[in-house]
User: Fold this.
Amino acid sequence: MPVVNYQIENNVGVISINNPPVNALSHTLRTELVETITNAQQDESKILIMICQGRTFIAGADISEFGKPPQPPSLPDVLTTIEASNKPVIAAIHGQALGGGFEVALACHYRCALSSAKVGLPEVKLGLLPGAGGTQRVPRLAGVEMALDMITNGNPISAEKAQSYKLIDKVIEGDLFAGANSYAQELIETKAELKKARDISIDPTTVNNDLFANYREKLAKRARGQIAPQNIISCIEAAVMLPMDEGLAKERELFIECMQSNSSTAMRHLFFAQREATKVKGLNKDTPVRDVKSVAIIGGGTMGGGIAMNFANAGIPVKLVEINNEGITRGLAIIEKNYSVSVKKGKLSEKQKTHCMSLISGVIDYQELADVDLVIEAVFENLALKQEIFAELDKSCKAGAILASNTSYQDIDKIANATQRPQDVIGLHFFSPANIMKLLEIVRGSKTADDVIATSMKLAKIINKVSVLSGNCYGFIGNRILRQYAREAQLCLIEGSSPQQIDSVMQNFGMAMGPFAVGDLAGLDIGYKARQGLSDEQRGEEKTYCIADALVEMDRLGQKNGAGYYQYDPQTRARSNDPLVMDVVEQQAKAQGIKRRQFDDDEILNRLTFTMINEGAKILEEGIAQRSGDIDIVYVNGYGFPVFRGGPMQYADSLGLKNVYDTICQYREQYGEQYWQASVLLKDLALSNKTFSEWSKDK
Ligand code: T1G
Assistant:
């Protein structure tokens, strides 16, 4: 089937692209585009329209072709053909013209778009830069500052905003094809010129000297470890200082450097892994889903309120269930405050806030839940209480209602077995703050029905969450790995390091924050209370938590009361090292009979990351996660693992599993096998020179 069709109507040559699902610029599409435009040069058409079928204009280069041998014509060659056309080419845009798709439109002589359309250059989110003229044409059309902003943040802009920056010539209401055709007739009548971005030159004296340096400094902090943002700035500088063709050559050189970088490999891995994670092995993709037109949240605390907002934001009415009117008032106040913060930041209008609030109502009596399609329990982590609530829901809710728990580590089967309908029970583990964090762990019980899983996956997309399916185990995927990471951080601390050394090692690695700064942010009392509810066996060795307990017993709870592992300035909340903490560390080490020693940064980094990798391998071999990319998606979206490393399992693949395995074996010799027993899967893959990614594809 051709992906490009062509026909002439009223002197207009219509180039119609149809390459589902998103009209990506595959080799076939590039080839047929060049053939079609070349042939059109000699025909009777006076102008050409390029338009797409399906849900969107071209959404970019075909990312699945990256890393494979390039096949001509390259995208720059396609754009040269378009720009060199002897008759004007009009891009007619609907949906999203992204990346190479927008670069195709920029090489056209005119651009029109539906008012609902968006255009953007999101390459930076893949660790890349626009490699087909985007960094040269946007500054010429829209100005240098707009180009820097648009290309370094990668977010699409509306057609209206694009028009205001001369990136779009005409915004069309109603039918795009009709609008584009009348625009074409207008251009024929006025004998419109072959308008080319390359004919615009930028006067360097109009560009603030510090602009580029300031941007470099800002992005060095915001995008630590990534080369693409810095290379984008260099390309835009070239657009100011060099003629078009030299600027294009510079852009190509820096694009290839990005393409070959580990960070781009990692970020492209995450792009596909996020989409792959929504596919459930063994589940027919046409599994019918249940309607979810109304939701109830049990518990109007911080989590319950945040969860409720996700559904209200998606236009789904929510009943917030509390034990009394005070609870409802408190819960609605939390939600109102969260919305007010978004309005203040300009992310939401007052009108939108009012509409969302109108969708949320307070409820006390479970009898009012008789018609809801989904209930999410979000009370505190007490299994008996959750079982009591589910037994109650079993009586109050209609047949076919989905009963979900937001539990972060309780056994989903034990919750499900409190009902007569375990097939309708599932875990929907949101991350705090639930109205902000993108990650949603969907936890299947042993009896959870397929259509409940399929419905949960679809619902995750509707409420704009990044979803990953997890099996039922303590801590599911994310928190199970976090426990190992936190334990090794505590052991490195008591054995000889300091909070500041460990935190700086992990921040330099690219984590958003180090483990001790995170602990202070969350509040050390949370872990303390959780440990009180555990048996000695569940709590683990005392040396893995005695420092944390000692600090809490000294009323050092973290940021919330000004001191934890660090001191916090009461005004600015800036953290500073506190010698008192090291006194506590030394006292506890002595009490545990530990002789402290010097630590080098590498040992800290390897112990904290390799224990995560080893636990991830166990999660894979137990079938708790479907594939290694799923674990990466959890850790990048829920725990601040650096995107440019692709997640713990991608990071392990980039190091080579044999290196990881050998180091873990060395740690087993040094520290014993309690924490350093290599997983069977890791050993097998290491010794057969395979990667987690290859294993996941073969599964
Ligand atoms: N290439 C290949 N496949 C793609 C693709 C792409 N660019 N974009 C989407 N897909 C697949 C995706 O994997 C999924 O497949 C299906 O399409 C639906 O996607 C030279 C170098 C367009 C906003 O970064 O942002 O151009 O899972 O589930 O939620 O300068 O897809 O069904 O098998 O995301 O409606 C720049 C990436 C590329 C845009 C639609 N472009 N795509 O979202 O559907 S680099 C991008 C998106 C580039 C040039 C440079 C989104 C979307 P499957 P989906 P959606």
